[in-house]
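Internal tracking record. Fields below are filled automatically when a chain is submitted to the structure queue. Please do not edit lines marked as system-generated. If the sequence contains nonstandard residues, flag them in the REMARKS field before resubmitting.
Queue: standard
Priority: normal
Entity type: single polypeptide chain
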Amino acid sequence: MNSVVEFLRNMKQRLTDWIVVLVLAVLFVTLEVSVPPYVRYITPNQVDSLKYPEKSNSVPVWAVPLIGTVLPLLVFTAYLLFWKCEMREYHDLILGIFMNIMLTACLTSALKESIGRPRPDFYKRCFPDGIQILDAQGYWKCHPTNESAVREGRKSFPSGHSSWSMSSLAYLSFFLMGKMQVFSGIAHLWKLIISWLPIFLAVAVGVTRINDYWHHWTDVVTGLTLGFIIALIVYVQFYKNPFARAGTQIPIYQFFAEVGRSGLTSAPSLVAPYMSLESGPASGCHETKNVPEPSEGEPFLAP
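SYSTEM-GENERATED OUTPUT FOLLOWS
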């Protein structure tokens, strides 16, 4: 019960961010429901690329938010229970999940509606009987059995499955990289593989979108890139760059409490490992220690 109260207290302190997340959620629903996609002119040399057969989704639409929300939530909750992190850190991780999802969802949806790129199976959606009809200006005059199928068929770029999956799972990967200090300068292949597994899963989701003929490969690559960038931007709001050599396991607010804001640019004061997934639960606050400056030409490794 105390944990719930403490979590709610942290929510109150970040109330503005939670309100923004809620506003983004409303914006996303509005874009999906009320804004029709742009009707793009289709040139004759594009027709063949839109005649792929219709297939069902290998990864259902409902599975994307489930994978992107539940999997990180389970990992972060296990981190709270077994590594005894502070409730503020746990709260920030959860907030980061929803910041990721809503930012990605809104940007992806806005691009889909404004660009209106047809999906690879758009010909079958538009002309289910195989008879192509054009208007006086050369635009396709669709006569579908289902109007929503045509509307959905104009939302190919970028891939929402890819951007949603990558934003959430890359965020999880960055967390694992930071906590296991993957890029500390001491190479451990098992750490690298484990920390990158969520990203590989997101890429696998993107590949299914190409194989199912729901997206062109450029839609998927753009979606994956978009999700990766958003995830990194959100992650560094709470932690140091996960590719850094030292201090990646420490939340930014704890780092500031130890060395102040100038500590991000000034060294040699570094914080000893704390809350590392490798070392296990911490027994107390961070222990600050001074690290000698490396001599010129000598590679820098924290002791």
